[in-house]
Amino acid sequence: MEDAIRGLTEAIEKAAAGQHDILDFVAIFISLAAIIVSVYGIYVQRKLNNVNLQSTYFKEIFGEYLKKKIPESSSKLVYDEHGKLDKSYREISKVLFTMWRSCGYFKYVHNDFYFQLGEMIKTIDEALVTIAGIREPEKEKQSKNIIAIHQKIEEIVLFI
């Protein structure tokens, strides 16, 4: 990069002295291209380092939830013999809210991500509370309700 700047400086001095040569213009062009490529390379490297750092945080914060806690708690979502949603739905809400609280780091780094995740979790919780408050004797409707909740959980997993 120093050679490029030195070459650029020499070409500018010659141009100022009135000595225009085609090689000088080529040197200026190549020097400017080298500077632009260098600056762009630094930008890309900084961005890549930031992404790698963020992925480490994502893995640390969400890894256990995505691999174990969410699947285990959501598999317990069933209706009882009276057509009421089993109280195990509270465990799903608890796991999701605990996960959200544990990712407070993103509240300051990726504010949009943090609050959108919170809204998605609140939506699931509200849906669970609504479904739990209704007695549903039809097995087909029970199945649709459970599938709808699983789809909302899948949206969260894909979002993360």
Q: What would you note in describing this structure?
A:
The two termini are 40 Å apart. The protein has one domain. Helices cover 82% and strands 0% of the residues. It is mostly helical. The chain is built from 6 helices and no strands. The longest helix is centred in the first third of the chain and has 54 residues.
- Give the percentage of residues in beta strands: under 5%
Derived from helix and strand composition plus strand pairing, the structural class reads: mainly alpha
Shape: rod-shaped
Order of helices and strands: HHHHHH
Poorly predicted runs are none
Distance between the termini: 40 Å
Question: Gyration radius, to the nearest Å?
Answer: 29 Å
Largest sheet: none
Strand count: 0
Overall residue-averaged pLDDT value: 86
What is the number of helices? 6
Helical content stands at over 70%
**How many structurally independent domains?**
1
